[in-house]
Amino acid sequence: MTFKDLALEAPILKALEKQGYTQPTPIQEQAIPILLKGDDLLGVAQTGTGKTAAFGIPILNHLSKDPTAGKGKRKIKALVVTPTRELAIQIAENFTDYSQFTNLKNTVIFGGVKQAQQVNSLRSGVDILIATPGRLLDLMSQGYISFKDLKYVVLDEADQMLDMGFIHDVKKIIAKLPPKRQSLFFSATMPKTIVELSQKMLGDFQRVTIKPEQATAERVEQGVYFVNKGNKPKLLVHLLEQRSNDSVLVFSRTKHGANKIVKKLDQAGIRSAAIHGNKSQNMRQKALGDFKDGKLKVLIATDIAARGIDVDELSLVINFDLPNVSETYVHRIGRTGRASASGIALSFCMAEERPYLKDIEKLIKQQVPRLGDHPFMEDHDAIEEASVKKAGKPRPNNRNRPSNKNRNNRNRYRN
Ligand code: AMP
């Protein structure tokens, strides 16, 4: 299937062509026809699957045919609510790209910065509003936003909004929307609260599910190094020195951990920056901008801050810590191997993280290849011993030795 088969308006097709998109991704192939028909949609999919275009293209297609949109004093016709500022900015950039040959205008609002500029652009009129929940409610309560003409609403990364404590804000926002509208709901996972919210928000809906393993494991080469805690920074330096030309995104479970990694890299002469919730919006934007432009090769991020990162040339993701929620692993490795590219994701696993690795492998239904040798293996036996003792199993003699298959895997990651 090509985008031409989807009977899209000429200006939208032209923009997709300019973006270099030739074929719809699986979620686009399934969701776009449903949305063009006007049905509500529940999309179970995460970032990296092409879901922004899956909802953006049909909304823009509808609006480009709407005689009341794109001219005069614009009224908000479409709203996208998303949990993080980075993601909001990313979505707005995508809308701008896809609508560049139409008259449609979007704006993005998020917290952590002064509101004046956002209020000004709302005052001047927009067709599409992309927002994080807190700032949106805030500006709604100040009377700067009217949803009287709203026709389309997208709730993006709903499970993340739940994790970040936004669920009440989201419910308040939904309550203020006109009942006659097309509603789209996206979530990577479907915990009970999210199922309930989707039922409340959607009318008769169709469901599209893109499984994590479909979305990532096929495209991304993965590998895991067993390494003790103290040696993780050394192993990171070692890997980065081997790949000094690549853009590398490093994940840390905590903000404090992310700062510590930056310091360690600095001591080794490797320039990097951290992005997380304790950094100011300006610092986050600057680091992200430099990373996207290739001026900064190494970015350290926590999971929440990384949500909106979309870098074309990102060839390597390193999980300095393994996440305790398996779905997060899928989100992380989905940063590389984006819709059209392939990438590599390497993980560091210390003894205490073994159970996380087990859960991840269960979710992605495959074993992450063990990358046996690295220069910091002196405590490796002790790590194995500890994890085996914990599991209460006898330790086979050759446990550390990678199989031939894994040895080959290991070589693939050598420069
Ligand atoms: P998303 O899941 O929306 O974050 O999109 C992931 C990445 O895939 C973004 O960099 C998009 O620009 C890109 N993308 C989306 N749809 C397509 C497509 N049909 N062909 C190629 N790249 C795409």
Structure write-up:
The chain has 415 residues and is α/β, with parallel strands linked by helices. The chain has two domains: 3-209, P-loop containing nucleotide triphosphate hydrolases (Rossmann fold); 215-414, 3-Layer(aba) Sandwich (Rossmann fold). It contains 18 helices and 13 strands. Strand 12 (314-319), helix 15 and strand 13 form a beta-alpha-beta unit. Helix 3 (51-64) packs across helix 4 (85-98), helix 6 crosses helix 8 (167-175) and helix 15 (326-333) packs across helix 16. It is globular, with a radius of gyration of 23 Å. The structure holds adenosine monophosphate. Adenosine monophosphate binds next to helix 3.
Q: Gist?
A:
The chain has 415 residues and is of the alpha/beta class. The protein is built from 18 helices and 13 strands.
Q: What percent strand?
A: 15-25%
Classified by CATH, the class of the largest domain is Alpha Beta
Overall average residue pLDDT = 86
Specify the helix fraction band: 40-55%
**Span from first to last CA?**
37 Å
Write the topology of this structure.
Elements: H1 10-19, H2 26-37, E1 40-44, H3 51-64, E2 78-81, H4 85-98, E3 106-109, H5 116-123, E4 128-131, H6 133-141, E5 152-155, H7 158-163, H8 167-175, E6 182-187, H9 192-201, E7 205-209, H10 212-217, E8 220-226, H11 232-242, E9 247-251, H12 255-267, E10 272-275, H13 281-293, E11 298-301, H14 303-306, E12 314-319, H15 326-333, E13 343-349, H16 354-364, H17 380-391, H18 404-412
Parallel strand pairs: 1-6, 1-7, 2-4, 2-5, 3-4, 5-6, 8-13, 9-11, 9-12, 10-11, 12-13
Helix pairs in contact: 2-3, 3-4, 6-8, 15-16
This protein binds adenosine monophosphate.
Adenosine monophosphate (AMP) binds at residues 21, 23-25, 28, 47-53, 310, 338-340.
